[in-house]
Amino acid sequence: MQTLSWADIDLSAIAYNFDIIKQSSPNQKTIAVIKANGYGHGALEIAKTIKADAFGVARIHEAKLLRDKGIQTPIIVMSELLAEDQLTECEQLRLEPVIHSAFALNNLKHFRPRTNRPFRCWLKVDSGMHRLGLNSEQLDTAKCVFEAHPNLHLVGLITHLASAEKIGDPKNTMQANAFKQLAAKFEGVDISIANSAATLFHPDLRGEWLRLGISLYGINPAHQSNTVTENLKPAMTVRSRIIDIKDIPQGDRVGYNGIWQATRSSRIAIIGIGYADGYPRHAKNGTPVLINGERFPLSGRVSMDMISVDITDASKPLKVGDVATLWGEGLDAEEVAQSCGTIAYELFTSAGQRVTKIYR
Ligand SMILES: Cc1ncc(COP(=O)(O)O)c(C=O)c1O
């Protein structure tokens, strides 16, 4: 049964975005980042659609779901705890853990692979973001661990930029230089620096492996554009329906705490999506909602199951059952996100269980 709110997921848009980005970086291998259920778009469906060199997830259970459904592509587990038993699970599922902490490194040191197959691992380097990653001394230890265990295979070195979307920010080059200096300890090993923003706007920082997330889903992560970002197609369009329409007199207020007041006689549409569906509760009055190709302002606080929109200026009469677009085709998710004090990443990953995904 179709739910009141739904997300149309355009897999061909994801495939298209993947292709145009790859064409712009033809010499790099690609990790398609499909953690958090493919940023809310459906990790399995994406894994079946695009031919990435590897997929990136955050947790082992995300990778297991893919393996259980027959996905054979290499899967990199980027931010797990990596306790001893989890390393065993990674080996069993042929996952490639990113060793990012002293704890994980110590577990790897004592880990004995059960098969003769090389156990493929990555090392994360802290080049200045100070979130995950090993420092210089820990990298020396890691080097000894890999040298001592011939069954361990170091696939690559990863670092993450703190401000990649700020194009031209000298901190990006500083981080990349610090990373390259540390990576030099591991001669001939592949490196990976670039997320979407670095891939699209810092060609010098790409390394051998790209890690593409938000751009696959059609979002330009930066505040400037280029020929690739101008052609990205949105892959998720969240829609719902008008469940009631009412006329209110000038001066009346709408919704919880009456944070919106009618400055004229107004017509209000109630739309069946709320914060329990993933529409952000912090959306400001005026956040755009698209109905019949026209933009209308959010009017009043977002409730758990519904929002209210001022449709007084509709050029054609609207009725109960009409479809509203909350973000996606025709309404840039990043614009909506900004009006909600957040980013498109959060909109996408918040689209909840009550929002059915419809693939096309
Ligand atoms: C380690 C790592 N690499 C790559 C990505 C992909 O970043 P983006 O979605 O900005 O392309 C992420 C996303 O958060 C990440 O955590």
From TrEMBL:
<keyword id="KW-0663">Pyridoxal phosphate</keyword>
<feature type="modified residue" description="N6-(pyridoxal phosphate)lysine">
    <location>
        <position position="35"/>
    </location>
</feature>
<dbReference type="InterPro" id="IPR029066">
    <property type="entry name" value="PLP-binding_barrel"/>
</dbReference>
<protein>
    <recommendedName>
        <fullName>Alanine racemase</fullName>
        <ecNumber>5.1.1.1</ecNumber>
    </recommendedName>
</protein>
<dbReference type="InterPro" id="IPR011079">
    <property type="entry name" value="Ala_racemase_C"/>
</dbReference>
<dbReference type="Pfam" id="PF00842">
    <property type="entry name" value="Ala_racemase_C"/>
</dbReference>
<dbReference type="InterPro" id="IPR020622">
    <property type="entry name" value="Ala_racemase_pyridoxalP-BS"/>
</dbReference>
<dbReference type="GO" id="GO:0030632">
    <property type="term" value="P:D-alanine biosynthetic process"/>
</dbReference>
<comment type="similarity">
    <text>Belongs to the alanine racemase family.</text>
</comment>
<comment type="pathway">
    <text>Amino-acid biosynthesis; D-alanine biosynthesis; D-alanine from L-alanine: step 1/1.</text>
</comment>
<dbReference type="InterPro" id="IPR001608">
    <property type="entry name" value="Ala_racemase_N"/>
</dbReference>
<dbReference type="Pfam" id="PF01168">
    <property type="entry name" value="Ala_racemase_N"/>
</dbReference>
<feature type="domain" description="Alanine racemase C-terminal">
    <location>
        <begin position="235"/>
        <end position="360"/>
    </location>
</feature>
<dbReference type="GO" id="GO:0008784">
    <property type="term" value="F:alanine racemase activity"/>
</dbReference>
<dbReference type="InterPro" id="IPR009006">
    <property type="entry name" value="Ala_racemase/Decarboxylase_C"/>
</dbReference>
<comment type="function">
    <text>Catalyzes the interconversion of L-alanine and D-alanine. May also act on other amino acids.</text>
</comment>
<feature type="active site" description="Proton acceptor; specific for L-alanine">
    <location>
        <position position="256"/>
    </location>
</feature>
<dbReference type="InterPro" id="IPR000821">
    <property type="entry name" value="Ala_racemase"/>
</dbReference>
<keyword id="KW-0413">Isomerase</keyword>
<dbReference type="GO" id="GO:0030170">
    <property type="term" value="F:pyridoxal phosphate binding"/>
</dbReference>
<feature type="binding site">
    <location>
        <position position="131"/>
    </location>
    <ligand>
        <name>substrate</name>
    </ligand>
</feature>
<feature type="active site" description="Proton acceptor; specific for D-alanine">
    <location>
        <position position="35"/>
    </location>
</feature>
<feature type="binding site">
    <location>
        <position position="304"/>
    </location>
    <ligand>
        <name>substrate</name>
    </ligand>
</feature>
<dbReference type="GO" id="GO:0005829">
    <property type="term" value="C:cytosol"/>
</dbReference>
